[in-house]
Amino acid sequence: MAKKSQWRKLRDECDDFFSLLVRARDGFACTRCGKYKGLGPFLHASHLIGRSNYAVRWDLRNVWAQDNGCHRYFGSQNHHEYFDWVRQRIGPQNYAGLMQLAQNGRRGRAQWTVDDLTDLRQALLEALQTYTEVLHTAGGAHGYTRLMRQVLGI
Ligand SMILES: [Zn+2]
């Protein structure tokens, strides 16, 4: 059982790092309407293909920062539009690659080991280091979160 809780802790950390990475990549603004939201609960890392598909759960092509309104808009009745929107945004080749991975990748959680998640966590931390300026700007304006302090080493 100890192993399971370690797995879950790592998985949740990967989720937290990845969500921060998506929002940092998108400049803490909504990618649909462009509104700047900064840190806080009003900007979501919105999955095109849901998180239950682990092959694309942490894929930057699959997840985009959206504010409450746009997250709701793309969420259910207009979800097909979100597919079109992503294809336009990343181009047909990247889109095809994303769909391919979603079909044929490691979709199940059981296909991800503690070692895999450890590697992923490290890769996400390194990716976040390329956004330190964006993180400092957002943190300076709104206050640094515990997660940001951990990422920035402050
Ligand atoms: Zn929006």
Major beta sheet summary: 2 strands, antiparallel
Bound molecules: zinc ion
Distance between the termini: 33 Å
Q: Helicity level, as a percent range? A: 55-70%
Strand order of the largest sheet: 1-2
Whole-number mean pLDDT: 94
- Global shape: globular
Structural class: mainly alpha
Radius of gyration: 16 Å
Number of helices: 6
Spell out the blueprint of helices and strands.
Elements: H1 2-25, E1 43-47, E2 63-67, H2 68-75, H3 79-104, H4 114-129, H5 132-142, H6 146-152
Antiparallel strand pairs: 1-2
Helix pairs in contact: 1-4
The structure holds zinc ion.
Zinc ion binds at residues 30, 32-33, 35, 66-67, 69-70.
Describe the structure.
It contains six helices and two strands. Helix 1 (2-25) packs parallel to helix 4 (114-129). Strands 1-2 form a two-stranded antiparallel sheet. The chain has helices spanning 2-25, 68-75, 79-104, 114-129, 132-142, 146-152, and strands spanning 43-47, 63-67. It starts with a helix and ends with a helix. It has one domain (2-152). It is mainly α and 154 residues long. Zinc ion binds next to strand 2 and helix 2. The site of zinc ion has 8 residues, from strand 2 and helix 2.
Could you provide a short overview of the structure?
The chain is mainly alpha-helical and 154 residues long. It contains six helices and two strands; from the N terminus they run αββααααα.
